[in-house]
């Protein structure tokens, strides 16, 4: 989980200050398909 969190912060941290600002968070969410990430696909 730590590696996933670190990678997520690196990808969203546009100014490389080690933190995600609200604006950076919003930009990251615009590029993410939340419905796809939070859905479970069932096979027929």
Protein model, in words:
This protein is mainly α and 44 residues long. It has one domain. The N and C termini lie far apart (31 Å). The protein has three helices and no strands.
Average pLDDT over all residues: 85
Shape call = elongated
Strand content: under 5%
Assembly state here?
single chain
Range of helix content: 40-55%
Task: Outline the biggest β-sheet.
Answer: none
Number-wise, the strands total 0
Residue ranges: pLDDT <50 for 5 or more in a row? none
Count of DSSP H/I helices: 3
Class derived from helix and strand content: mainly alpha
Domain count: 1
> What sequence of helices (H) and strands (E) makes up the elements?
HHH
Question: Radius of gyration in whole Å, from Cα?
Answer: 13 Å
Distance between the termini: 31 Å
Subcellular location: Cell membrane; Cytoplasm; Nucleus
Main location: membrane
InterPro entries: Calcineurin_B_homologous, EF-hand-dom_pair, EF_Hand_1_Ca_BS, EF_hand_dom
Keywords: Calcium, Cell membrane, Cytoplasm, Lipoprotein, Membrane, Metal-binding, Myristate, Nucleus, Phosphoprotein, Protein transport, Repeat, Transport
